[in-house]
Amino acid sequence: MKYSTENPGKVLKASGIKGGQIEVKKNTDNTWTIIYDLLDDQTQPKRITGSWTGNFKE
Question: How far apart are CA 41 and CA 16, in angstroms?
């Protein structure tokens, strides 16, 4: 996503997700890990990958 610098919060460009996988797992130390491997909906899809580990607020 690309946001406007003149109008904070306004989305200038965006792309949807058309496929891929998201894995969410709880770790033994009570943190969570999210792993994603996604494809956007462009004519020639781009791959979006990454992970995050941390805690969620209740």
Answer: 5
pLDDT category at 54 given cuts 50, 70, 90 is very high
Say if residues 15 and 2 touch (Cβ distance below 8 Å): no
In-domain check, residue 6: no
d(CA 46, CA 28): 33
| 4 falls within a domain | no
Domain that holds residue 37: 16-58
- Residue-wise pLDDT tens digits, 3-53: 667 777 777 777 788 999 999 999 999 999 999 999 988 889 889 999 999
